[in-house]
Design brief:
By secondary structure, the protein is mostly helical. Helix content is about 70%, strand content about 0%. The protein is built from seven helices and no strands. The longest helix is centred in the last third of the chain and has 25 residues, at about 140-164. The radius of gyration is 17 Å and the shape is globular.
Length: about 160
């Protein structure tokens, strides 16, 4: 059953900004992010899936957005670069210019499965349960990947501090 026009309008208005932010977290290009977001909605419209709720539609759209983002980065051989520390450093008392390191560079070195978790958790402010639903992995797997990603980042930070 295809979604109704009214339901599509609601879903578009409700999730477009979030999908754009996820795509932007990968591409750091406004135009590419808009294209990815639009592709996700086209995929939804063309899908014959039956969705139980708007939450399920949201998870579907997020998963498609992640896949489209990764596909774009792979196909165009673009580097996946997170260009600033905004999504990790949200504290008003810490200015990203004052950091002795660039967290974005460290996040970029993470394997995809860890980078995705970090982007969804910190950049898009998703809860572990929601990440679990989007990626179709258990909550414990999300927690473990988040822990491993943090540990990898911590080791890299410690390594860069010793080089200073």
């Amino acid at each position: 059953m295809k979604i109704s026009e009214q339901q599509f309008d609601y879903v578009y208005n409700e999730y477009a900004k979030e999908l754009f932010n996820i795509a932007y977290g990968y591409t750091h290009n406004r135009d590419d992010s808009i294209d990815i977001m639009q592709n996700a909605y086209v995929t939804l419209l063309e899908s014959n899936k039956t969705f139980e709720s708007n939450e399920h539609i949201k998870y579907f759209l997020i998963r498609v957005t992640i896949n489209e983002s990764l596909d774009l980065l792979k196909s165009s051989h673009k580097k996946n670069v997170i260009r600033n520390n905004d999504f990790v450093v949200n504290s008003p008392e810490i200015k990203k210019e004052e950091l002795p390191y660039d967290l974005s560079e460290i996040v970029n070195t993470l394997p995809e499965k860890y980078k995705t978790i970090i982007i969804l958790h910190y950049y898009d402010d998703m809860k572990i349960k929601d990440i679990s639903n989007v990626l179709k992995i258990s909550e414990s797997a999300v927690k473990k990947r988040l822990e491993r990603a943090r540990n990898i980042m911590k080791k890299k930070l410690e390594g860069s501090n010793q080089n200073d």
